[in-house]
From TrEMBL:
The gene is LOC114446857. It comes from the Eukaryota. Residues 1-242 form the Peptidase S1 domain. It is found in: Secreted, Extracellular space. This is trypsin. It comes from Parambassis ranga.
Length: 245
């Protein structure tokens, strides 16, 4: 996160860290992406976060990744399901969404606490210009390698029309995504934040409106962050969860 502030304990309880290590490796798991807990056994993330031949785990309830915190829950990923129309081109990432099914013990996966809670899905479109929140452990203006402490920042929803202007992203942007940020630059998501939440207020609750997806570098003028448009995938989310009990 560029232009962010440290998150307080319990403020973003649906934020998870997605971590991988090569299958068969005895080394430590490494953070690669953010994700969002949407049900006890289900995490929503970006499609481009799913790598082949990796063991995957999800860490939740944690702000500082390198510290052992009593609030932390670590759960193995049983299955990763990437959207069937996920596609990466040199200029954009389309249908950038995936679901992770967590491994359960006695029918439970995540245990709801003060520090671990599910996020609600959105019910419809929100207005352009609305202020929303992004968070993650990704790169900052100080470090390409990301931060130990979870950071958050406020961003504004940018209209599809504005985002499709030639000086912004032109024809690369479609309706599976939207732009958010600050066109003057400075505040943005970045590498390592991918798959993590963009939440907005809707009907007096926080809803998961976007997932960090892509952008032309980070924090640059006229190059806002691009987010997966979660409202476009509500049927896919519901059908995928139902099909994998
Ligand atoms: C990335 O490389 C990435 N500024 C994520 C978000 C943004 C740019 C790049 C948005 O994963």
């Amino acid at each position: 996160i560029f232009g962010g502030l440290k998150v307080s304990p319990g403020a973003i309880p649906w934020q998870v860290s997605i971590q991988v290590k090569p299958k068969g490796s005895t080394g430590p798991f490494k953070h690669i992406c953010g994700g969002v807990l949407i049900q006890g056994c289900w995490v929503l993330t970006a499609g481009h976060c799913i790598q082949k031949n990796m063991n995957m785990q999800v860490v939740m309830g944690s702000l500082a990744l390198s510290n052992v915190e009593s609030s932390t829950q670590t759960i193995e990923v049983e299955r990763a399901i990437v959207h069937e129309n996920y596609r990466e081109t040199p200029t954009a990432v389309y249908n950038d969404i995936a679901l992770l099914k967590l491994r359960n013990t006695n029918g439970r996966c995540a245990n709801e606490t003060q520090f671990v809670k599910t996020a609600c899905l959105p019910e419809g479109q929100l207005p352009d210009g609305m202020e929303c929140k992004i968070s993650g452990w990704g790169a900052t203006e100080e470090s390409d390698y990301g931060t130990n402490h979870l950071l958050e920042a406020n961003v504004l929803l940018i209209s599809q029309e504005k985002c499709s202007e030639p000086v912004v992203y032109g024809r690369a942007v479609d309706n599976t995504m939207f732009c958010a940020g600050h066109l003057q630059g400075g505040v943005d998501s970045c590498q390592g934040d991918s798959g993590g939440p963009l939440t907005c207020q809707q009907n007096s609750t926080h809803v998961i409106y976007g997932l960090v997806s892509w952008g032309d570098q980070c924090g640059k003028k006229n190059k806002p962050g691009v987010y997966t448009r979660v409202t476009r995938f509500l049927d896919w989310i519901k059908a995928t969860i139902q099909a994998n009990p």
